[in-house]
Amino acid sequence: EDVDVPSRRVLITGATGLLGRAVFKEFNENNWNTVGCGYRRAQPRFEHVNLLDSIAVHDIIHDFQPHVIVHCAAERRPDVVEGQPDAASQLNVAASANLAKEAAGVRAFLIYISTDYVFDGTSPPYKETDVPNPLNLYGKTKLEGEKAVLENNEDTAVLRIPVLYGEVERLEESAVTVMFDKVQFSNKSANMDHWQQRFPTNVKDVAAVCRQLAEKRMLDPSIKGTFHWSGNEQMTKYEMACAIADAFNLPSSHLRPITDSPVVGALRPKNAQLDCSKLEMLGIGQRTPFRAGIRESLWPFLVDKRWRQTVFH
């Protein structure tokens, strides 16, 4: 029997990660022929590809002939990048440059996922045309990655996004969800950063933006260059923690706001808010309200679920 295989093909790198899983699901559920690749956690669902192996990258791209590649794979933990600069540069810059070259070889549209950390956070909101000035090595490697992909493939979209959250496999997968235990265990006080202004963004929304961008691009080859997407609720980590507590009817009086700039770890920009009007004017975008998104993401990790069911049912 003839099986209707969608004619639009998309390849997703980093498909095992928090964002990659959401991007894979979004394309897959919207009639794209979707292949995801990963490294450590790839099998059995995704192709096992080491992005530092140029032959492996060449082979999967030439075998699959994707129309679109969404490059989600990166070392995205600023403190890890500071400690392992060479490895981070290999993945964030060298592998991205090679991927862009291979994408150009099959005329694939590449979406390179970048970060708000390319900006120093001193004069938000930032438009795509504003001059980057990263404060930490992570931001620097992602900015170098942007330049590398644009130099190697003119059919590239750079999509800068801020701190992400969503349906995590472990709480540590996101800088937002990792706070849940501190919120839940209210028997001891917890210090929370109340200095850095963040814009928590749901991975489902970023995934929808990637798909909309890809579909617009299939109709209009002028769709390329740099774009920004972000949630629009401004919150410090302290405010996110309070919102999480509120979403689950948990106490928040044990959470302590710390208003000094952090002294440990990689430098962070104070407020790297992204101006998203360029995508909005194209009719692209989706935003999940933070309380609804965080409730959906964290519900499986709620410690007293059983207790609640016996009390309320």
TrEMBL record:
Reply yes or no: does the keyword Ribosomal protein apply: no
Which Gene Ontology cellular component terms are annotated? Answer: methionine adenosyltransferase complex
Q: Which keywords appear in this protein's UniProt record, sorted alphabetically? A: NADP, One-carbon metabolism
Can you cite a GO biological process for this protein? one-carbon metabolic process
GO molecular-function terms, A-Z: methionine adenosyltransferase regulator activity
Which domain of life, per UniProt?
A: Eukaryota
* InterPro entries assigned to the protein according to its UniProt record, in alphabetical order: dTDP_dehydrorham_reduct (IPR005913), NAD(P)-bd_dom_sf (IPR036291), RmlD-like-bd (IPR029903)
Family annotation (PANTHER family): DTDP-4-DEHYDRORHAMNOSE REDUCTASE, METHIONINE ADENOSYLTRANSFERASE 2 SUBUNIT BETA
Q: What is this protein called?
A: Methionine adenosyltransferase 2 subunit beta
Specify the species. Zonotrichia albicollis
Encoding gene per record = MAT2B
